[in-house]
Specification:
Mean pLDDT: 94
Subunit structure: Monomer.
GO biological process, one term: base-excision repair
CATH class of the largest domain: Alpha Beta
Number of helices: 6
Bound molecules: zinc ion
Distance between the termini: 27 Å
Keywords: DNA damage, DNA repair, DNA-binding, Glycosidase, Hydrolase, Lyase, Metal-binding, Multifunctional enzyme, Zinc, Zinc-finger
CATH topology of the largest domain: N-terminal domain of MutM-like DNA repair proteins
Number of strands: 13
InterPro entries: DNA_glyclase_Znf_dom_DNA_BS, FPG_cat, FPG_Glyclase, FPG_N, H2TH_FPG, Ribosomal_uS13-like_H2TH, Znf_DNA_glyclase/AP_lyase, Znf_FPG/IleRS
Organism: Candidatus Doudnabacteria bacterium RIFCSPHIGHO2_01_FULL_45_18
């Protein structure tokens, strides 16, 4: 599942491509992937042809003015007081191809022997065509993601944009703010705490493992057991690990693909995530994994206390 570094990569790479682009047409190939208005998109979505056609006709002739991110939501602002919200959820992909490269073949899955495909692929459900001939494709193997069109007035009512903790890379997210948050859920295991979107936005299974390795703290440690030095290292880990991951365009674990069709390379730098049974890159001890509260945490039993 894409986490903050992957969604931020999508936003940063799409921003120069999409800014000032005018939408010529939108084709919705799977109506349940799109929605209108601020109500929560349920997983029990039905195929609403009429919603899909309103979605497409409202977007027609609109110009994209800005693209940003809040937690894991992509926010595409449109002239005419509309915003298009895109949530990639488990396997959503946004791929942009300019007019000259529409026949580019892209590997949509980061697994061995996968073949490169031309878009639209089987998993392409929404296609945006711009007036300059370029296209934006929304693919989603597992169909958990969505694209939702809201007016600027409806934006504050969107449930999926509320109740998030602070943005960890925001300058305003200081050590003091971080320390205050540690008093919430003090008995929780630190891995669950760090993955709680109400505490800090955008951190999931991959980056919680990597941040805990950076801080030399085991995932099962109770929040309240952390020593002052460990708290400081954890705060540093949040900043350093997420910033490095963005610098490497995220981790292409399974379905994450950059908007240009390339893979993110941070996966090669993972110290513990996905490395259970392999040697620790620092001390050579075998990386262990542990299941707790429905999640698997991987860690080095020697480096992490
Ligand atoms: Zn180690």
């Amino acid at each position: 599942m894409p986490e903050l570094p992957e969604v931020e990569t999508v936003v940063r790479e799409l921003r120069p491509k999409l800014k000032n682009k005018k939408i010529k047409a939108v084709r919705v190939l799977m109506p349940k992937m799109v929605a209108m208005g601020p109500a929560t998109v349920s997983n029990l979505r039905k195929n609403h042809e009429s919603i899909a056609s309103t979605f497409a006709s409202t977007l027609k002739n609109k110009t994209i003015t800005a693209i940003s991110r809040r937690a894991k939501m992509i926010i595409i602002d449109l002239a005419g007081r509309y915003a298009l919200l895109v949530h990639l959820k488990m396997t959503g992909q946004l791929i942009f191809l300019d007019k000259k490269h529409l026949d580019k073949q892209i590997k949509l899955l980061n697994i061995a022997n996968t073949t490169a495909l031309r878009l639209p692929a089987k998993s392409t459900y929404v296609i945006f065509e711009f007036t300059d001939g370029s296209k934006l494709f929304y693919n989603d193997y597992r169909q958990f993601g969505y694209l939702k069109l809201v007016t600027d007035k409806e934006l504050p009512q969107v449930a999926e944009l509320q109740d998030y903790g602070p943005e960890p890379l925001d300058k305003r997210f200081t050590y003091k703010e971080f320390e205050k948050l540690l008093s919430k859920r003090a008995t929780a295991p630190i891995k669950s705490w760090i993955m709680d979107p109400n505490i800090i936005a955008g951190i999931g299974n991959i980056y919680s493992d990597e941040i805990l390795f950076f801080a030399k703290v085991r995932p099962t440690r109770a929040v309240k057991s952390l020593k002052p030095k460990e708290k400081m290292q954890l705060y540093k880990g949040v900043k350093v690990v997420l910033t490095n991951a963005i610098g490497h365009h995220g981790s292409s674990v399974f379905e994450f693909v950059r908007p240009n069709g390339d893979w993110g390379t941070y996966g090669h730098l993972h110290k513990v995530y996905g490395r259970s049974g392999e040697k620790c890159k620092v001390c050579g001890t075998i990386i262990t994994s542990l299941k707790f509260s429905g999640r698997t945490g991987s860690f080095c039993p020697k480096c992490q206390k």
